[in-house]
Amino acid sequence: MFDTMYDARGVGLAAQQVGHALQLTVIDVRGIKDRPSTMQIDGKFVELEAHMPLVLINLELKPSSETFTGPEGCPEFPGSFRRDYTAR
User: Is the Cβ–Cβ distance between 15 and 22 less than 8 Å?
Assistant: First the structure.
């Protein structure tokens, strides 16, 4: 998974994106500037890069009340990016 993500110059990849019906995601945001990402462990904010690369299995996401706008890409369409993607 990491090799596929790195080859596509991505920062995250879900197993379903590469044809595997698993709740598995890999993430590596080391060196990425101007990202709105934060990470909490046991309710306390931690230094994100200290926990990279990261493998998430059967993850549970909690939606944020904040809205973020930034670039978004997809390994299925290399070189295609939305610079104005908005996520919450």
Answer: yes
pLDDT (tens digit, 9 = 90+) per residue, 55-69?
999 977 777 777 767
Which of helix, strand or coil describes residue 2? helix
SS (HEC) of 36-80: CCCCEECCEECCHHHHCCEEEECCCCCCCCCCEEEEEECCCCCCC
d(CA 48, CA 56): 14
pLDDT at 56: 92
Q: Does the predicted model carry a pTM greater than 0.85?
A: no
Q: What are phi and psi of 73, to 5 degrees?
A: -135, 175
